[in-house]
Amino acid sequence: MAKSIRIIRESGLPYKMGPMSTAVEGEWDEVIGVVEKCFKELKKDCSRIYMTLQMDYREGAVNRIEDKIKSVEAKL
Predict the structure, then answer these.
(1) What is the CA angle 66-55-4, rounded to 5?
(2) pLDDT tens per residue, range 31-53
(3) Does the chain have fewer CB atoms within 10 Å around its N or its C terminus?
(4) Residue 64 clears pLDDT 90, i.e. is over it
(5) Rounded Cα gap, residues 8 and 37, in angstroms
(6) Considering all CA atoms of the chain, what is the largest pairwise distance in Å, rounded to the nearest integer?
C-alpha cells in the first residue's frame, strides 16, 4: 500500500487514504494514469494484485473528497 500511496502523493492529485480504500480526485485520464502507475509498480513484486475501482463522475464538481464529508457531517 505504501508504494501506491507514494505514487498517488507524487501525482499531486487530491486524495484521502482510509483503512480499506483510497479516494483520488481528478480528471479521468489523470486518475487512470495514477492507477496504471500503481499497478505497474506493484506488478514488479506481486504475482497477484486485487484491485477494486469505483468511479463517481459529477460534471463541474471540484473538491468532492472534502466537500462530501462536510456535507454529511453538517446533516448529522
Answers:
(1) 75
(2) 999 999 999 999 999 999 999 99
(3) C
(4) no
(5) 9
(6) 45
**Residue whose C-alpha cell reads 499497478 in the numeric block:** 39
List of residues 6+ apart from 42 with CB closer than 8 A: 3, 4, 49
The DSSP result for the chain, as a single string, is -HHHHHHHHHHT--EEE-SS-EEE-S-HHHHHHHHHHHHHHHHTT-S-----------TT---HHHHHHHHHHHH-
Q: Structure pTM? A: 0.83
The CA distance from 22 to 15, in Å, is 7
Cα-based angle 67, 69, 75 (whole degrees, multiple of 5): 100
8: which 3 cell numbers? 498517488
